[in-house]
Amino acid sequence: MSRAEYVEIRRSSVVRAPREQVWARVVTAEGVSDEFRPLLSMRFPASLRTSRAGDEPGIADLPLGRFVGRAWILLGGVLPVEYDDLVITGVEAPHYFQERSTLGSCRVWEHRRELDELPGGATRVTDIVRAEPRAWVPAALVRTIVGALFAHRHRRLARTFGG
Fold first, then answer.
1. How far is 132 from 155, CA to CA, in rounded Å?
2. Element (H, E) at 119
3. Which helix (H) or strand (E) holds 140?
């Protein structure tokens, strides 16, 4: 990242489900949006909400390195509070996906989610976020909000899969 002031968050937790099952959930629009609930939801671009086959496409189905649309983070499911101009830069199913996007609050948003298979059918989910806030957004604010959001997302994953 070009600016000296950036935010880096790393959150890891273990859930009691096989990696393929966790992957099948966390790469879908519904799965990601569920991690934001109940206060927030995420509305993805149409390319990630529907497919011609009628099944729900996943992040792994998107073209790499190309802008695929704007995802909105909604307060209460209706009020837009942030956007993500979504660009997926890497996928290796069921191991990881990676995005490098821009947000309303951040010039650069890099998010990598890794899934590691553990003994006994468990999975370690690790999120690594690096963000370069826009000049008008304090890095401490981004660090606090992003840290709290990913802590919440991991609690939701534990609730969904056991943890």
1. 25
2. none
3. helix 139-161
Q: CA dist 129 to 10, 39, 57, 66, Å? A: 6, 21, 23, 20
Residue 129: both structure tokens together: 């976020």
Q: Which residues of the chain have pLDDT under 50?
A: 1-3, 51-53
Q: Which tokens sit at 110?
A: 């890099």
For the CA atoms of 34, 40, 44, 46, the dihedral, rounded to the nearest 10 degrees, stands at 90
Global confidence as pTM = 0.91
Q: Coil, helix or strand for 135?
A: coil
Name residue 151's amino acid: A
pLDDT in tens, 113-123: 999 999 999 99
Closest CA to 109 of 145, 80, 76, 77: 145
